[in-house]
């Protein structure tokens, strides 16, 4: 009937040792799903959990709270996929949005593809661009238009708009780079 130990001040190495001890004590020999009761017993020590354990936990429908989630080993948390986080948090997934500005969650978001973050439907932004969905950049062909105007004296004045556009562009380019000619 003892309360769980508070290991929040322990180093990551110490948390890993404590997690391994708790994992041996609470986990069945099976390498399949982890019962919710085992999760609840090991919860204070999850800061030292391995990637393999968290992946098994993700498949176990445990509904991890955000305080436990954000206190996972940073190297392990950053390696979790969007789907693994979705499965770990379960019904607590919407709470992830309220923690999006914490350093560890921001770092996790920036490692994910934005298209995958969008599948969570909670409005997380800041993920990497999906290169397969970015449309290719095309440069429109420049066509030359020539306009002819006749004055009363019959003289023709030709205006080459493409040439004029090029000169304006060149002038802007020179002034923006402050190049002296």
Label this structure with key terms.
181 residues; 6% strand; mainly alpha
Q: How would you explain this protein's 3D organization?
A:
The protein is mainly alpha-helical. Helix content is 44%, strand content 6%. The chain has 9 helices and 2 strands. A two-stranded antiparallel ribbon has the order 1-2. A hairpin with a 5-residue loop joins strand 1 and strand 2. Helix 3 crosses helix 6. The protein is globular and about 70 Å long. The termini are far apart.
Discrete helix count:
9
* SS-based class: mainly alpha
Given as residue ranges, the uncertain stretches (5+ residues, pLDDT < 50) are 153-159
Radius of gyration: 30 Å
Q: What fraction of the residues are assigned to beta strands by DSSP? A: 5-15%
Instruction: Give the overall shape.
Output: globular
Distance between the termini: 85 Å
Provide the helix percentage.
Answer: 40-55%
Tell me which oligomeric state these chains represent: single chain
The profile of the biggest β sheet is: 2 strands, antiparallel
What string gives the helices and strands in order?
HHHHHHHHEEH
Mean pLDDT: 78
Trace the largest sheet across and list its strands: 1-2
Number of beta strands = 2
InterPro entries: Mesothelin (IPR010335), Stereocilin-rel (IPR026664)
Protein name: Mesothelin
Family: Belongs to the mesothelin family.
Transmembrane segments: 161-180
């Amino acid at each position: 009937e003892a309360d769980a130990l508070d290991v929040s001040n322990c180093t990551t190495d110490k948390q890993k040792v404590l997690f391994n001890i708790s994992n041996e004590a609470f986990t069945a020999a099976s390498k399949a799903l982890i019962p919710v009761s085992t999760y609840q017993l090991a919860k204070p020590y999850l800061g030292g959990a391995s990637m393999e354990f968290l992946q098994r936990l993700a498949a176990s429908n445990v509904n991890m709270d955000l305080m436990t989630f954000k206190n996972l080993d940073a190297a392990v948390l950053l390696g979790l996929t969007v789907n693994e986080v979705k499965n770990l948090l379960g019904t607590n997934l919407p709470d992830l949005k309220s923690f999006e500005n914490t350093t560890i969650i921001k770092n996790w978001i920036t490692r994910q593809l934005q298209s995958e973050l969008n599948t969570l439907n909670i409005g997380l932004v800041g993920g990497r661009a999906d290169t397969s969905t970015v449309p290719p950049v095309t440069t429109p062909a420049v066509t030359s238009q020539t306009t002819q105007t006749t004055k009363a004296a019959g003289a023709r004045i030709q205006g080459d708009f493409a040439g004029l556009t090029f000169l304006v562009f060149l002038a802007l380019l020179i002034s923006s780079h402050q190049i002296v000619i």
